[in-house]
Amino acid sequence: LSNLYGLLFLLGVAVCYTTSEPKVVRNYLVCLAIADVGHIYYVYKALGWDAFADVGSWNVLTWGNVGITGFLFLNRVAYFLGIFGKEVVRREVKRD
Questions:
Q1: What is the pLDDT of residues 33-54, one digit of tens each?
Q2: Coil, strand or helix: which one is 20?
Q3: Which of 2, 32, 41, 53 has the highest CB neighbour count under 10 A?
């Protein structure tokens, strides 16, 4: 599983740092946001409402699965809302 997370991390770095198209980055972040919602939902289904709502009793694994995923989701939504500023299109410089 950690290899999968590593692969997704490297894919994200490759997509975000090699493209000059904001639409590509936005589509990538939309996919991640949908995956975040699905991940949190399935953790909720596995835990049940009582354990899910009792944040004080969460262990490290639950914080990783729900807390960190929720934090990342909120950052993605903030990006979509423009809270971090406008998208900047990078132009490649032609060299002779």
A1: 999 999 999 999 999 999 999 9
A2: coil
A3: 32
> Residue 69's CB: how many other CB atoms inside 10 A?
19
CA distances (Å), 16 to each of 9, 39, 47, 82, in order? Answer: 11, 22, 34, 17
Least Cα distance to 39 among 82, 83, 8 occurs for: 8
Query: Are 54 and 46 contacting, i.e. CB atoms less than 8 angstroms apart?
Result: no
User: Which structure tokens are listed for 16?
Assistant: 């975000």
| DSSP labels, 65-96 | IIIIHHHHHHHHHHHHTTTT-------PPP--
What CA–CA distance (Å, rounded) separates 31 from 27? 6
| Whole-model pTM over 0.85 | no
Q: Which residues contact 91 (CB under 8 A, 6 or more apart)?
A: 20
